[in-house]
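User: quick one, sequence for these tokens?
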């Protein structure tokens, strides 16, 4: 509906007299909002106010000219009115509401799907946690955001691949192997020398100062001891310890994600970027050098990002503009494999979307510069950056630290508040805002808890349908939907018919919280309808129409919750 109206507004703008020669009505963005006050109509746009300067006339005059010339379907739009300094208010026709409700009921589980991106492909990379320990609460927000954005893209027509970048190379993996080896040695030869770390923790003498300390490290070490006895004491390097830890931790990560309702379509192993002739990472370096965009200095390889517009200092170099790709030790920085990986993703999809924590803000622009320098389309790469999560219990923050094992894991969180609540709470705020996860609210069975509020509304409608069926009413039967004329009925229908546009908006903005907020509006509108309009006990035609409206509400709630990855219970 909004797209059709926007096109009609642009056509009316193009028909205005005495337009400037350089004015292109087709290029005008026409955005609609739902007014807070129903007396202002069903949709409103301030496009006339935005065009006052380029058209060199008053907003009111522009709005009046559009209202006089706009061509709309009278069965869908009852009126286009001018209000205030130049707002255009649109009022729907009753026939539009009736037809829209019938369409909703017919489409059912597919209602809300739009074909904006049919035939296009997308890779959404998310979680991609280093396999060095259980998933934390922060990883949980990443997982839920990425998974829900992938769902939204799917609902707008994309063929989506959900991808996990398995970071199985680099220093952290070596530290993981060293941590397991030290614990293994202590298991098979107890009583060996120990040392005390800065925070007072006593560990085996060979344990790295920045090693991983969680109980899972000891569990992996014990499993190796059970399988091999002391045969690995003479292992020439950490490889068997690293591999065992990788496999155990990654299996646990996948199990945790599955519990959260997240299932990946593919896993990309970082080590493959170092394989082949030439290996992709070293091919990046050589190609940049050949184009005078990389050079060697002090034993390190630098990316000449200063030539590509970088102006800030991130690496401590004298000029503050160039970026280290390979350290003097020969070890690549994160940017190098990331550049190679993104080039690979671009070869496989029309859209590449990454979900990163705020700690990536400093690095990903260099990755995009590298992609551009190597001929990739960086405009096809989008990055959703999310802020971190603080668990709050009794008004006090819960401390979290991966290496010190003082964190609360994602599994712990789900065990305490449930999978549905975990997912929804991660989606309640915009990704770019810090999230305080209130554990007390999350466990509250009241309308204050938004998950309870939505799921209860869905279960309540299911109960209404069961009771109505017992009285002989059938929501699947024919009914004259035009009898739904009560103010609360019309308000609910108007809210439900916004769902496809809300899906589109949330998908285009990569903003699942917008859909979460809308679903609460749906539940609120339904509660007002059910308060004001009886179903069971009315004459059959009206009761059946109202029952169909209740079913339509349940459809929108269920479809929306499905996109968010939250269940829609029939009973509570």
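Assistant:
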């Amino acid at each position: 509906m909004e797209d059709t109206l926007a096109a009609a507004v642009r056509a009316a703008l193009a028909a205005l007299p005495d337009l400037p020669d350089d004015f292109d009505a087709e290029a005008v963005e026409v955005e609609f909002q739902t007014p807070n006050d129903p007396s202002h109509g069903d949709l409103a746009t301030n496009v006339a106010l935005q065009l006052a300067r380029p058209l060199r006339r008053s907003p009111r005059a522009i709005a009046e000219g559009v209202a006089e010339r706009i061509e709309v379907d009278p069965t869908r739009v009852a009126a286009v009115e001018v209000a205030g300094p130049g707002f255009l208010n649109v009022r729907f026709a009753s026939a539009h509401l009736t037809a829209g409700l019938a369409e909703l009921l017919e489409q059912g589980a597919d209602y809300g799907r739009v074909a904006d991106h049919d035939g296009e492909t997308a890779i959404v990379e998310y979680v991609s946690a280093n396999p060095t320990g259980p998933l934390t609460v922060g990883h949980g927000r990443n997982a839920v955001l990425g998974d829900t954005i992938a769902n939204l893209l799917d609902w707008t027509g994309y063929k989506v691949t959900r991808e996990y970048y398995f970071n199985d190379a680099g220093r952290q993996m070596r530290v993981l192997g060293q941590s397991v080896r030290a614990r293994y040695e202590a298991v098979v030869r107890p009583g060996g020398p120990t040392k005390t770390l800065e925070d007072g923790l006593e560990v085996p003498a060979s344990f790295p100062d920045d090693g991983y300390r969680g109980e899972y490290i000891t569990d992996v070490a014990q499993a190796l001891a059970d399988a091999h006895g002391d045969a690995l004491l003479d292992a020439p390097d950490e490889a068997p310890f690293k591999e065992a830890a990788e496999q155990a931790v990654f299996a646990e990560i996948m199990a945790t994600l599955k519990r959260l309702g997240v299932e990946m379509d593919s896993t990309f192993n970082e080590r493959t970027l170092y394989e082949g002739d030439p290996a992709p990472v070293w091919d990046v370096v050589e190609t940049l050098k050949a184009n005078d965009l990389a050079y060697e200095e002090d034993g390190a390889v630098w990316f000449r990002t200063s030539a590509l517009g970088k102006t800030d200092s991130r690496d401590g170099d004298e000029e503050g503009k160039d970026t280290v790709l390979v350290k003097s030790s020969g070890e690549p920085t994160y940017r190098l494999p990331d550049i190679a990986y993104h080039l690979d993703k671009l070869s496989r999809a029309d859209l590449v979307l990454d979900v990163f924590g705020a700690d990536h803000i400093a690095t990903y622009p260099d990755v995009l510069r590298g992609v551009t320098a190597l001929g990739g389309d960086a405009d096809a790469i989008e990055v959703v950056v999310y802020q971190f999560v603080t668990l709050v219990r009794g008004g006090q923050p819960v401390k979290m630290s991966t290496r010190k094992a003082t964190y609360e894991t994602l599994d712990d969180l789900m065990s305490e508040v449930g999978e549905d609540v975990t997912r929804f709470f991660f989606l309640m705020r915009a990704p770019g805002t810090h999230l305080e996860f209130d554990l007390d609210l999350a466990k509250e069975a009241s309308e204050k808890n938004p998950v309870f509020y939505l799921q209860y509304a869905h279960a309540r409608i299911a109960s209404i349908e069961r009771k109505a069926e017992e009285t002989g009413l059938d929501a699947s039967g024919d009914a004259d939907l035009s009898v739904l004329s009560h103010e609360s009925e019309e308000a609910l229908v108007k809210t439900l018919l916004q769902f496809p546009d809300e899906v589109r908006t949330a998908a285009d903005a990569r903003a699942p919280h917008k859909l979460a907020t809308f679903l609460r509006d749906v539940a609120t509108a339904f509660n007002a309808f059910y308060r004001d309009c009886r179903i069971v006990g009315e004459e059959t035609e009206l009761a059946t129409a109202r029952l169909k409206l209740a079913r339509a509400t349940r459809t929108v709630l269920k479809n929306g919750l499905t996109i968010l990855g939250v269940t829609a219970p029939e009973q509570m």
